[in-house]
């Protein structure tokens, strides 16, 4: 229930609208009871041929209760729905604040389809929490208790019968429904997540499935997931209707008891017969407030599951303000020094060590290349420096400050980053370059495009989603231009020119090294050409550093790096 407590905390932030909703909901409920009580009394009184002024007063009271009921019901709907939309907004903001720090590593734990189902479907499910879960019991209890208090002036026995009805329809039956509902809601949510995953994989993998002629099998799996989800939805719908029917039956049964008990009391002379119709009408009306309790277990379980699935993605409650007070910062006016000591790391749910007691020092202003075969841990090392992940052991310091005391934003602000896969947004070339830094001029952006050999592109050229209309080399060069425009003093480059031809690569590196002349630069690369300019070269294999030194030192050593260089020469010559 910890996750539901988080939702409740977000709900009560909208105190004003909640109080108005409860107030007008109570007025609407009491006005409805008063309306039917007056009509029952009027019918009985009219049968006794009372004076005209008595009927006139009673009819006026009926109109008063009717108008009050309609207006208060409208106000209740207005404020409750406004509160719901505000709560939903608060929920989304809170969730994304929790999700943001985990975003770089989130796909290591969750498949994209399942994550999409949580972010969209589960958040939408919680829109019913206030109106269907939080709010109905308050109205039920306040209206029932006020009505019961009113009935004690006429018959303590009838009041007691309504208390039993309140307990039965408001608490006992919903509790029994909740036990049954838990399994059903769990199945519905899991099937929805499975369906979202299959849909996402089919859309993303459509081309490859078509090429390898496996599309039909994937379609059948999608249809199977869809049928399973529909079946669970039907089961849930049947259960909801049954719960509603049983709750209505219980309310009507109590009303029959009230009628029988009232008739008995009239016969025994303990109740004036003129009030019997009034008591019966009150009983029928007040149990209308118990109807939402029949579907409350369904929405409660739905909300509980949604909250659990949502906040399990971000299982640590963020206390951002308190954390920021404890955080230190790094200076942006100079290049940065990096120290790593006995760093070990393995990915979540993977027991294999990706980095094993890695130690290195990168002096400020130095140029370092990290090379080695695929899977040796080069890219992972950069991801730890960017604080995408937390090291399992050892220490990492940037400019003398432990990385654990630095926020991700502080590190990224001072860093020019080029990853193996860089995201490009739907828009223009200008839009995708402007995210590098505020205040960039068109002249600066055009000049940078020229430096990365993208003179053929204009700032107005359209970029499709994920840069689908750009080649692999154009994507890399655009990412390099974006990084060069940012102006940070730490460069983390992960295979920045793997899709760029040799001549363009040489030109780009010349401009890049000139721009980063006084900055700290770390280059991860499979290619060994052009490393003569590096201050040091670190060779990694299977998560450990096996060699380090300058280009000349490693070549003279004739070790692993020398062999790699000879193999590269034999392949490309």
Automatic annotation (TrEMBL):
It comes from the Bacteria. Pfam families: ABC_membrane (PF00664), ABC_tran (PF00005). Its main location: membrane. GO terms for cellular component: plasma membrane. Residues 19-288 form the ABC transmembrane type-1 domain. It is found in: Cell membrane. InterPro entries: AAA+_ATPase (IPR003593), ABC1_TM_dom (IPR011527), ABC1_TM_sf (IPR036640), ABC_CydC/D (IPR014223), ABC_transporter-like_ATP-bd (IPR003439), ABC_transporter-like_CS (IPR017871), P-loop_NTPase (IPR027417), Type_1_exporter (IPR039421). It is a multi-pass membrane protein. Keywords: ATP-binding, Cell membrane, Membrane, Nucleotide-binding, Transmembrane, Transmembrane helix, Transport. Residues 338-567 form the ABC transporter domain. GO terms for biological process: cell redox homeostasis; glutathione transmembrane transport. One of its GO terms (molecular function) is ATP hydrolysis activity. PANTHER family: ATP-BINDING CASSETTE SUB-FAMILY B MEMBER 10, MITOCHONDRIAL, ATP-DEPENDENT PERMEASE MDL1, MITOCHONDRIAL. This is Thiol reductant ABC exporter subunit CydC. It comes from Paenisporosarcina antarctica.
């Amino acid at each position: 229930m910890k996750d539901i407590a988080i939702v409740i905390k977000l709900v009560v932030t909208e105190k004003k609208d909640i109080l108005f909703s409860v107030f007008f909901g109570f007025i609407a409920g009491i006005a409805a009871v008063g309306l039917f009580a007056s009509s029952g009394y009027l019918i009985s009184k009219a049968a006794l041929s009372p004076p005209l002024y008595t009927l006139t007063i009673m009819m006026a009271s009926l109109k008063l209760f009717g108008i009050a009921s309609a207006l208060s019901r409208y106000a209740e709907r207005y404020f409750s729905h406004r509160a719901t939309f505000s709560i939903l907004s608060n929920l989304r903001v809170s969730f994304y604040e929790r999700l943001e720090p985990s975003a770089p590593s989130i796909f290591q734990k969750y498949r994209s389809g399942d994550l999409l189902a949580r972010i969209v479907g589960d958040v939408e499910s919680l829109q019913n929490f206030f109106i269907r879960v939080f709010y109905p019991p308050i109205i039920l209890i306040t209206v029932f208790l006020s009505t019961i208090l009113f009935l004690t002036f006429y018959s303590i026995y009838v009041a007691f019968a309504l208390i039993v009805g309140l307990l039965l329809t408001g608490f006992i039956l919903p509790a029994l429904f909740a036990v049954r509902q838990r399994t059903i809601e769990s199945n519905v949510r899991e099937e929805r997540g499975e369906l979202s995953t299959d849909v996402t994989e089919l859309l993303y993998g459509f081309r490859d499935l078509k090429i390898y002629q496996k599309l039909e099998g994937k379609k059948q799996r999608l249809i199977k997931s869809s049928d399973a989800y529909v079946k669970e939805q039907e089961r849930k719908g049947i259960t909801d209707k049954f719960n509603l029917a049983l709750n209505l039956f219980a309310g009507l049964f109590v009303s029959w008891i009230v009628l029988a008990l009232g008739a008995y009391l009239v016969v025994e002379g303990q109740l004036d017969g003129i009030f019997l119709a009034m008591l019966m009408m009150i009983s029928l009306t007040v149990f209308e407030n118990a109807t939402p309790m029949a579907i409350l277990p369904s929405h409660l379980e739905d909300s509980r599951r949604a909250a659990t699935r949502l906040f399990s993605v971000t299982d640590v409650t963020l206390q951002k303000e308190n954390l920021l007070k404890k955080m230190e910062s790094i200076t942006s006016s100079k290049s940065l020094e990096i120290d790593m000591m006995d760093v070990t790391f393995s990915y979540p749910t993977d027991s294999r060590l990706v980095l094993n007691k890695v130690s290195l020092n990168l002096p400020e202003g130095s140029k370092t290349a990290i090379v080695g075969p695929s899977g040796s841990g080069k890219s992972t090392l950069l991801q730890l420096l960017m604080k995408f992940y937390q090291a399992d052991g050892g220490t990492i310091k940037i400019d003398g400050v432990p990385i654990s005391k630095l926020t991700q934003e502080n590190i990224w602000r001072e860093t020019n980053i080029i990853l193996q896969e860089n995201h490009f947004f739907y828009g223009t070339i200008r839009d995708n370059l402007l995210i590098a830094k505020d205040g960039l001029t068109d002249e600066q952006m055009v000049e940078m495009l020229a430096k990365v050999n993208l003179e053929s592109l204009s700032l107005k050229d359209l970029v499709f989603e994920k840069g689908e209309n750009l080649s692999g080399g154009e994507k890399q060069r655009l990412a390099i231009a974006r990084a060069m425009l940012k102006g940070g003093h730490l460069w983390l480059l992960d295979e920045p020119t793997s899709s760029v031809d040799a001549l363009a690569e040489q030109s780009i590196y010349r401009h890049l090294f000139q721009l980063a002349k006084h900055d700290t630069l770390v280059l991860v690369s499979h290619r060994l050409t052009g490393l003569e300019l590096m201050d040091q070269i670190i060779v990694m294999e299977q998560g450990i550093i096996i060699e380090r030194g300058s280009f000349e030192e490693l070549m003279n050593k004739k070790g692993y790096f020398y062999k790699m260089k000879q193999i590269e020469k034999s392949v490309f010559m």
